[in-house]
Amino acid sequence: MGSETKNTGGPRHVAIIMDGNGRWAQARNRPRLFGHHAGARRVREIVEACPENGVKYLTIFAFSTENWKRTQIEVAGLMSLFRRYISKEMKDFVKRNVRVRFIGDRVRLDEKLRGLMDEAEELTSHCTGTNLTIALNYGARDEVARATQRLARDVAAGKLDPEDVDEETLPKYLDTRVLPDPDLVIRTSGEARISNFLLWQSAYAEYEFVDTLWPDFSAEEFHKLVSSYGGRERRFGGVQS
Ligand code: FPP
User: Which of 79, 158, 165, 194 has its CA 20 to 30 A from that of 210?
Assistant: First the structure.
């Protein structure tokens, strides 16, 4: 099945901000959606590369709460790509033992897409290989606001004492509550920004910003970044001793 995750001492949870699809398409004189389709093929390749790289959790930023500001054509094209991607890959995820989850606010997504998301989560709920989390209509501040709302409701209902709220409490209300924090966050396309992605969860993560545009990001480059994880700390340790 190829789903056994190697224990490499590398990052167990890698999160990726997949940027540069638009520029990749533009460089080929093609519409932006052409770049998003090429990006979707890379998602598949990187998911497949996780087990041999010791990556048990992969979280990818597919659509942000800010992305609604794009043209109606691009937004509709992306939503249709997500629908097609999920329904096409679903059975393959099961075959490859990939457990799929979604984070973000589903309320604004169309019913058909929401149904496919539920179905994919349900169908793969027994899978024990790679944990793939797709962030769809996700924004970290929005996630914290929604979490705080749920927490406040529990306080109002007398289920939670405000005196007991500490660093361990809020994560239990976040969309990521069942996931460990990311160890490594990668952003492609040369931008060194976090763009409202997993702000709470990445407090101690290592960051890698690479120039490669997402549709060119290969399993080989993924392997290189994963292998050099922790290198900075080790070098620092060497200087110190
Ligand atoms: C950012 O590139 C990318 C996105 C907003 C969409 C990410 C989506 C994919 C990679 C498609 C497939 C994903 C799944 C889960 C099927 P950009 O358009 O901002 O690029 P630019 O900065 O060059 O304009």
Answer: 79
Q: Which residues, including other chains, have CB under 8 Å from residue 66's CB and lie 6 or more apart?
A: 139, 195, 196
Ligand 1 atom at shortest distance from the alpha carbon of 42 = 10
Pocket test for ligand 1, best of 32, 36, 74 (most atoms within 8 A of CB): 36
Residue 85 Cα to chain centre, angstroms: 15
Q: What are phi and psi of 186, to 5 degrees?
A: -110, 135
Q: Residue 199's pLDDT is what?
A: 98
At 113, the pLDDT band (50, 70, 90 cuts) reads very high
Query: Which residues are annotated as catalytic?
Result: 19, 67
pLDDT at 241: 44
